[in-house]
Structures are given as structure tokens and as C-alpha cells.
Amino acid sequence: MFGIKLLLLLLLLLLLLLLLLLLLLLLLLLLLLLLLLLLLLLLLLLLLLLLLLLLLLLLLLLLLLLLLLLLLLLVLLLLLLLLLLLLLLLLLFLLLLLQ
Predict the structure, then answer these.
(1) pLDDT of 24-64, one tens digit each?
(2) Distance of CA 39 to the CA centre of its chain
């Protein structure tokens, strides 16, 4: 009778130990899941940051292109002004020659 009680007590202790191990495994798996979720969140944040940086670079490129176009327009206007001055000088020279 005493041996059966001892055997049942040992079986109960073994089952409690198994339950404790399963709870520990569940805790470890939940911790791993939490770490993976944090890693995913970090990667998404990094991706968002990279997209923002790309957008900023695109905006900078557009601004530089606009500046280049404005400078080109300024050069064309100066060339036109120079041409008009040359024509005016030529006209004055011809008027002086005719008199």
C-alpha cells in the first residue's frame, strides 16, 4: 500500500515537472514571438525611413533641375540682350556712315 502511494506521488511530481517544463517552453516561445515582432517593427520603421530619404533626395533633385532651368533661361536672356545691343551698335554705326 505504501509503495503504491509512493509511486503515485512520484507520478504526480513527474507530471508537475512536465507541466513546469511545458510552461517554460511556452514562455520561451512567447518571448521569441515578441522579439520577432519587434524585429519586424524595426524593419518597417527602417523601410519607412529609407522611403522618406528617397523622397527627400527626389525633391532635392527636382530643385536642382529647376535651378538649372532658371540659369539656362537667364543665360538665354543675357544672350538675347547682347544680340540686341550688337544690333543697336550696328544701326548706330550705319547711321553714322550715311551722314
Answers:
(1) 999 999 999 999 999 999 999 999 999 999 999 999 999 99
(2) 16
Helix, strand and coil in the chain, % to nearest 5: 100, 0, 0
Closest by alpha carbon to 87, among 79, 76, 73? 79
Q: Is residue 76 part of a domain?
A: yes
Question: C-alpha dihedral over 45, 49, 52, 56, to 10 degrees?
Answer: 170
The range of the structural domain enclosing residue 59 comes to 52-99
Residue 55: all three cell numbers together: 523622397
Domains in the chain, number: 1
* This prediction's pTM: 0.54
Query: How far is residue 43's CA from residue 90's CA, in Å, rounded to a whole number?
Result: 70
